[in-house]
Amino acid sequence: MGRIIDGILQGVTFDPARWTGGEIEPDIIILHDTASRLGRGSAARYLKSNDRKVSVHFVIERDGTITQQVRTDRRANHAGTSTYHGRRNCNRFSIGIEMVNPGKMTRRSDDKAQAWFGQTFGIADHGIQEISTPEHGHGLWMPYTEAQIASVIDLCQALFNDIASLRDITTHWYVSPGRKVDPGPLFPLEQLRSIIFGRDEPRDVDAAVDTVLYSAGLEYVQTHTPGDTLNLRRWPSFNPNVIATIPHDTILPVLRRGVFAGRQWVCVLYGGREGWVLASYADPVTFKEASP
Ligand SMILES: [Zn+2]
Asked: Does the reported pTM lie above 0.85?
């Protein structure tokens, strides 16, 4: 398995971090700011080796250089206290990407922007913008470089091509609301998502809004594809997103249901993995109550 991305994506070097955890099967990518000085290698050196047990899978420098520090099938300590769609401790199921950026800054009386670590930046020199959002609050933010954004896109594309279990790209502020504000509001998150997922791909986030959420164990379906298998898909669509094939007559717990592009889909659990199957090939199962 291509668990070190080097070779899949040209130019990524692997420089192992001090703090690496046990095996994971990543479901999501979490984007971060380093909230650090901008010098090349400075944040990467800290993330690779520190006494605070912090680590991350990838670091993207201002010039777009990518360093990998943790294998994608190993846990890194980047998210801390976090929740994604009801699942706690996102380090157990995510890949972390840190982009070098000073993070949220404040305006000084001499009209410079000051980072939390004391360094100041000329507002016009760095294209710094003053922005308020519900997620980030009010602050001054430095834009990401074009090279950084291009590298994030390339990296996410390579990761989604290589790792079938990946389903979403999210942010530290989304999984740790009120505690974290990275990446900043100038990061083009929706642009990245539409490139990776396709413009009309119904993602989990949309599906969660449009469908009823079942508790696993309350409803089951049985696949009905005599002589054939049923595709388990990352999202409810016919785009190339098959993550497993399920044998005929398999009984599966249902997590969600929904109608997408005029078809009924069910989100099921198979082999420890969430995915969508066409409802027309998944018959409802009714269990007889055991006699007392
Ligand atoms: Zn973060």
From this structure: no
